[in-house]
Specification:
Distance between the termini: 25 Å
Shape: globular
Number of strands: 0
Structural class: mainly alpha
Largest sheet: none
Helix content: over 70%
Order of helices and strands: HHHHHHHHHHHHHHHH
Number of helices: 16
Strand content: under 5%
Length: 311
Amino acid sequence: MQNTTEHTVPVRKRWYKQLYFWVLMAIVAGIIVGWLAPDTGQAMQPIGTTFVEAMKMLIGPIVFLTIVGGIAGVADLKKVGATGLKALGYFQIGTICAMVLGLVAINIFRLGDGVNADPAKIETSGKAADLIDQGQNLQWWEFITHIIPGSMVSPFVEGDILQIIFMAVVVGIAINAVGKIGEPVLEMVRRLTTVIFKVLNFIMKAAPLGAFGAMAFAVGKYGVETLSSLGWLILLFYGTSLVFVVFFLGGIMAFLGLNIFKMLRHFREELLLILGTSTAEPALPGLMKKLQRCRGQEGNGRAGRSHWIQL
């Protein structure tokens, strides 16, 4: 049993061989290229967008397979329900606290003072316009009915995570309920999960290229001056987020006997990827993979749990 645990612990690489180091270098290189050669920086857009799309491609399958495998493999479904209610409670309370903290921060520092802009005259297009229209016209009951997809395929095609989660929960409960008949299906789900995570490994090797392309395009198109003028807003955003993560999320983890700083260090590649691409979607598959790995280590006993507790 000891040998099995030792084999599951990954060998630690030197710092210059770590993915996060190359992502960070790629971000710096992207800023330099976009600053010194704006046209070249803007030409790097396809590199960033292709990487983001490749990562988004895996979000639906990873979420579906992970949830199905987790629910179907649990002996007692009551524990799943209790865990789900706790997670929903944490999510609701955390969302409210994040909103309150953001409102307090922006009203204290008031970075928008002096900006002569009329929100009513600002023209929106694309996803922003769709979201505004949806928020203004969506009925409360449409949120509930929208969870149920029109077909088994449409959530994956449209990338609707809420519908994918709903399908995964239903399928996972069904596999669990049929007992031994569902064991081959559960085994297939586990094998597919392994394959999808291997695909993720391949794509993540291109993370530095994706971060470079996205950052070079942003700086090349909008200029360093434009980005620097937003520096205080960016600083306030990251500062407020850091306060929320360290004190709120860190407080919950401390209550559970876990270490927030250990978790942040463990997810450094994904955090830098979010910084470089300015979107959280590419980081989700990697986050879920690492959470799966930590769950497996925790299943091996105290050695897995100490992975989160000790710095």
